[in-house]
Design a protein that fits this description.
This protein is an alpha+beta fold and 337 residues long. The chain contains 11 helices and 13 strands. It folds into 3 domains: 111 residues, Hypothetical Oxidoreductase Yiak, Chain: A, domain 1; 168 residues, 2-Layer Sandwich (Ribosomal Protein S8, Chain: A, domain 1), CATH 3.30.1370; 43 residues, Wheat Germ Agglutinin (Isolectin 2), domain 1, CATH 3.30.60.50. It comes from Acidipila rosea.
């Protein structure tokens, strides 16, 4: 793996986006979101995902000039149309709007229709926590996860994010409804590693830790078995109903045309419910209790803790980038490694 500095990676992606006719400020924000994702160690949805993002711009699935607009306002709840613009920019703006609404009402909710893949969902959890609010968001996806008891994908892996602000390190849970996201499966396969636990079924219907076999069978394991597929179904319903957008069964199953998604962004302003410092102490106490009662298993990390450590390391040493991916990105600029 190459090590590319944060600044060089962000600048290079920005130059590609400018070449694709992004407005300058939007190009810089979009590139920063991709770079932040890679810097935090989520390589599958950072620079590794960038070539697919560019292909979707070329095939018309993503409109680089489109920005989300509100279409319905009802107090703390708003409905927005993403107009098929870049998914990470749409999501970033809509979480920002949910935060603004929470400042006014204590809680804010933006339901977004007709958007594209938001890349790393955790990005918008960190955005909320950095603003001092509790953030909850989720998206539906194309049908890429079989419902429990089924062999054919019929629900989405519908990532769910819950973020809690905390001075000692934000707690950010970012999880798909499959035991391993397709991005994670691809990363394990590329490294030639087995999954740490069984993550799906092979072509013969047997549970396996082989990521390639799971990708080939398209049968990842729902997290919590029937509970995971049930939660995926419920998240899809709420997102489609609140946004008046597409449900999973209405989204193309072609990965290069996975467009028109529905998403929900919630924010809760702690300052409206008492002293934020006092409320954040509750999170500290919960973490301390869990870490003090691990038995012989050693220290338990809270969600987001590893991300902070990875971020610091990659800022210092440079962000790991696959040489083939980096070559593909430079080729978009007519340059060579």
């Amino acid at each position: 793996m190459l090590r590319i500095s944060y600044e060089e990676l962000a600048d290079t992606l920005t130059r590609v986006l400018l070449k694709l006719k992004f407005e300058e400020a939007r190009a810089k924000t979009c590139a920063r979101l991709f770079t932040d994702t890679a810097c935090d160690g989520i390589y599958s949805h950072g620079v590794n995902r960038f070539p697919r993002f560019v292909k979707m711009i070329h095939n018309g699935s993503i409109d680089v000039s489109a920005s989300p607009v509100p279409v319905l306002r009802c107090g703390a709840l708003e409905r927005w149309d993403g107009k098929l613009g870049p998914g990470n920019l749409n999501a970033y703006e809509c979480m920002g709007r949910a935060i603004e609404l929470s400042r006014e009402h204590g809680v804010g909710c933006v339901a977004l229709a007709r958007t594209n893949h938001w890349m790393r969902g955790g990005t918008y959890g960190w955005q909320a926590a950095d603003a001092g609010v509790i953030g909850i968001c989720w998206t539906n996806t194309m049908a890429n996860l079989p419902a429990w008891g089924s062999t054919k994908p019929s629900v989405g892996n519908n990532p769910l994010v819950i973020a809690i602000p905390r001075p000692g390190g934000h707690v950010v849970l970012d999880m798909a409804m499959s035991q391993f996201s397709y991005g994670a499966l691809a990363s394990y396969r590329a490294r030639g590693e087995l999954l740490p636990v069984e993550g799906g079924f092979d072509a013969e219907g047997k549970l396996t830790r082989d990521p390639g076999a799971i990708e080939q069978s398209q049968r990842p394991l729902p997290v919590g078995y029937w509970k995971g597929s049930g939660l995926a179904l419920a998240l899809d319903m709420v997102a489609a109903m609140l946004s008046a957008g597409n449900a999973t069964h209405q989204i193309s199953t072609d990965a290069l045309h996975e467009s028109g998604l529905s998403q929900v962004f919630l924010a809760f302003d702690l300052s409206r419910f008492g002293s934020p410092d006092t409320l954040e102490e509750t999170a500290d106490q919960i973490i301390e209790f869990v870490q003090a009662n691990t038995g012989s298993t050693g220290r338990i990390r809270y969600p987001g803790e590893h991300t902070l450590a990875t971020r610091a390391e990659n800022r210092k040493l440079g962000i790991p980038v696959d040489p083939e991916i980096w070559a593909a990105v430079l080729d978009m600029l007519g340059e060579t490694p």
